[in-house]
Amino acid sequence: MKISGAELFTQALKREGVKHLFGFPGGVVIPIFDVLFSEPEIRVILTRHEQGAVHAADGYARSTGRTGVCLVTSGPGATNTITGLATANFDAVPIVCFTGQVARKMIGNDAFQEADIVGISRPVTKHNYLVTDRKDLAKIIKQAFTLASSGKPGPVLVDLPVDILKEEGDSHYPESVTIRGYNPVTKGHPGQIKKTAHALGQARKPLFYVGGGIHISGAADIFRKIVEKTRVPVVSSLMGIGAFPSDHPKNLGMLGMHGTYAANMAVTHTDLLFAIGTRFDDRVTGDLSKFAPEARIIHIDIDPAAIARNVPVEIPIVGDARIILEQLYTLLKSPSIEDWLKQIVKWKEEHPLTFSQDGKRLAPEAVIKTISDVFPDAIISTEVGQNQMWAALYYNFHKPRTLLTSGGLGTMGYGFPAAIGAQIGNPDRTVIDIAGDGSIQMNIQELATAALNELPVIVAILNNGYLGMVRQWQELFFNRRYSSTCLQRGVNCPPNCDQKPGQVCPPYTPDFVKLAEAYRAIGMRVTRMEDVRPALKEAGKSKTKPVLIDFIVEREANVFPMVPAGVAINKMMFDKRAQE
Amino acid sequence: MNHIISLLVENHQGVLSRIAGLFSGRGYNLASITAGVTMDPEITRITLVCEGEDDVIDQIKKQLHKLIDIIKVIDLTDVPSLHRELALIKVKAKPDQRGEIFQVSDVFRAKVMDVSMDSMVLEVTGSPEKIDAFTSIIQPYHIQEIARSGLIAVERGKKQ
User: Fold this and answer.
1) Second CATH level (architecture) for the domain A364-552
2) Of B25, B59, B70, which has the smallest distance from its Cβ to A305's Cβ?
3) Which one of A45, A68, A201, A565 is least enclosed by Cβ atoms within 10 Å?
4) What is the average pLDDT across B145-159?
């Protein structure tokens, strides 16, 4: 039977089990949207911006483990996906993004809404395709889904010229495809695994360092068994949070620039650093020459290029974290590490996480701790900056795939559309976007998407009137010169603001409560600590409406501990006020 | 140190730009790149010459391997292999200078491809070092144009 390219596209999505498609139409993809109009099995979520569509697909994918799918038009529709694709590519999120393209005979002629999206997206995708022949369409879609979700996952873009969407052709969709240049290794080398077990048995100060690979491979359960068998403590990258329960006594928390004292001290003194599914990012390592200086390093990763890129690795193991940890489990014994465990307890007691409250405005850390109390099983997305770090440090994560955050690219505006995607994929869970007042405005238009799709996403804005993380750096390293970081700054403000915020500042713009109401969402404003819990409980009652809570927090609160960029990670700065 | 990396890649559109983009995007040094189809019309062989410390070369190979269209990455640097480059050189040559140029060309086994009233075109094949040596010898006659192919390489057969 002959069917159109657009019909084949829809059949292919159904064969891939796609139930949700995040998209935005335009001229050249009308043929697909036309088929989808009468397709009951695929729900189209119309976002208000293509970037929102990709982030939503990303949040859907991270929270469910299934591939997120989006569909946008050519030209600006396609270029608007780039930040979303780069975000997903950095954090290894499986997405298939379909873009429309002008008809084949028009390509290269600067046609209306033409963009070389395959060229533009090449460095920010795992792979991409321009379909140039109707007979290749099915095979390419199958390859795209295969590549996105296997090996180290990532976004794959498929560019679809409009004439191919209209062309009648074969309806066959293949069961599987082989790609001869692509054979990811999943099983670990047995010799390396034996060496690893031996090295861990010999170590006196061993430490696990886990990353996003634990979530992706589904290794959380076997990893927990290994920790309990060996009693070796754990530190985690931002992406690894949730891989191991935050409140487990063996968990020292996040390491790196805003890592805990115990985590950073443990890394600095460990004699065996066992890294799993993580890539030694500069925000983790600080000064590389002083990172884990006494340690032998074992590194498991599915991406060979991630191993030994930043630090020398003694025992590399390429493969899938879950499979390798299962291979390893029976070989492991508990090493004698009593002194080390005692030392770790000491570090934990020396500098637990602390923050100060001036009593006038809300402490952002206290707001997050209350969110953690009221919604212990939520899926949390974050924006980027202080809100992200406070969420990572103060929310008690205890399950995999519950923290959705742009770790690698650091994309402001990620959290809210990601929360929408997560809520679509997890209709029975509470989904909360922990946002800053700056970041939320980067994709605030998606309030319409959340409202019309009746998604009870909670947006907790920690409103300090600043681009807070940049302001923190300006305070600490640029002599408090708050250049372009005050979001209340108006045209009549003095050129060199006197740095005493809040005295004669213009009113905050926009009024988030009114904005929420304009979108037919629920808006609340909270200014006092005693109102935080009741407001969250009220928000939790909403079943069909998004809730936006404007928490007016202390303007100049900082994220601590902090290690300045490029400095050894045991050289931490603490909140002086909290220690007084 | 220069490394010679031979790639077998899918003969798909955009493969060269994926490789070139990898080098520019990650700040690697690419000295030359050549491409040509193999016996199998679906597979192209690409020969790269790149510069870098061992750890950088190691990353380059791993990153190349990650490209989906690349089927095989072979580092020929420390493998017995044959390396050749071809150059076409147009030199200024008055009729009375032709004899000298013929003689020099003979020593380097360069071929004279074209002779005109005031110039000659020479073809020379060999290692990049040989071509460098030839151009420096021929330089005094004034080189008007030069086109170098970039290096191609193939592994030697097994001796046993």
Assistant:
1) 3-Layer(aba) Sandwich (3.40)
2) B59
3) A565
4) 92
